[in-house]
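Task card 7
Instruction: Convert sequence to structure tokens.
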Amino acid sequence: MGGSQEQIRAEFAKRQGRQSVAIAAALLLIVVFAILSARPGWLGANTRGTIFSAQVVVIVAFIGFSYQNWRCPACNRHLGGDLDRRVCGKCRARLN
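Output:
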């Protein structure tokens, strides 16, 4: 993407916000599915296999989203596991 320092910071803030929402949503869904797995009668006759499959889908979707979203706005390389990055480890662009 490149761009000015202001554009890079603005784009990183958007990506960081999306990543935070994705983390919260994925964790919430995993916990809900874990509760449903422990009490399968709450919402009908869901089998544990179906609930496990739903958990796997959530995890795979989160990983796929993170792979696309969590990249440096300047060089487009993956930013790693630190959600509070200040500088890209690859191109050294200032992110916030």
